[in-house]
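---------- Forwarded message ----------

FYI, see the Lipoprotein record below. Original note from H. follows.
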Amino acid sequence: MRVAIVALLPLALGGCIARTAVDIVTLPVKAVGAGVDAVTTSQSEADEKRGREIRKQEEREGREARKREKEARKRAREDDDDRY
């Protein structure tokens, strides 16, 4: 049994060494790819960002419109109170 384990050990380690060598060789390529992904924006990401900006602008405009309507109602009530 021990002889079989000792005989198979180099085969198992060989795979580990080969896998490690491949990882070391491909690491710079993966790092560059990750860096490019980090600094570039895909079209879908740009579209999502633009959609968020549009929604935020619409929310601001809605708040401002509600504020103007509220102030107009307040002025109308004050004008009615001044007449009586």
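H. also flagged this: The chain has two domains: 1-40, 42-84.
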